[in-house]
Amino acid sequence: MNPTTIDNERAHWDAALDAREAVLAADLRAAAAEVPGGRDEAESDSVRAPAGDRVDIADERLQNGLRYAEAERDMAELRDIAAARERLANGEFGCCIDCGSVIARARLQALPAAARCVVCQERHEKDHPVQVRLPPDL
User: Fold this and answer.
1) Which is nearest to 16 in space by CA: 109, 83, 91?
2) Which of 34, 48, 75, 95 has the largest count of CB atoms under 10 Å?
3) Domain membership of residue 60 as a residue range
4) How many helices (H) and strands (E) does the chain have?
5) Residue 60 domain-assigned?
């Protein structure tokens, strides 16, 4: 590839990473705005609430737990984007971090921060299953 093509490719992937990062940042800001006053407020509401309202409080806690899990996922993807930016800067972007093969362009279009080819990603997911962590107060 000539230098102009390389620069154009780098600019394309940098813009794709910027776009995804902006979406994730907006999602995290929206999630933070939805979080209620905190654990102490929910616990005190639960103690003085009638039985029917306790179901609503439990549902709210469940929804907060889901928002927490979504925020954890978004933050992990932001870390993946930061790692992709490092690979982009050092010329390793688009190469699988496990086997070194070229990651399919279609995969990068769908997930610009992809660090592994499909085969290696499937193996990684099998060897490292995702566990959803919820905050301890739920």
Assistant:
1) 109
2) 95
3) 3-93
4) 5, 0
5) yes
Number of domains in the chain: 1
| pTM for this entry | 0.76
Is there a domain that residue 121 lies in?
A: no
Q: Which residues contact 120 (CB under 8 A, 6 or more apart)?
A: 96, 97, 98, 99
Each residue's pLDDT tens digit, 50-63: 666 888 888 888 88
Rounded CA separation 105/30 (Å): 31
Q: Is 129 exposed, middle or buried (0-12, 13-18, 19+ CB in 10 A)?
A: exposed
Whether 113 contacts 95, CB under 8 Å: no
- Give every CB contact of residue 18 below 8 A, 6+ residues apart in sequence: none
Residue type, 109: Q
Residue 118 lies in a domain: no
| Cα radius of gyration (the chain) | 21
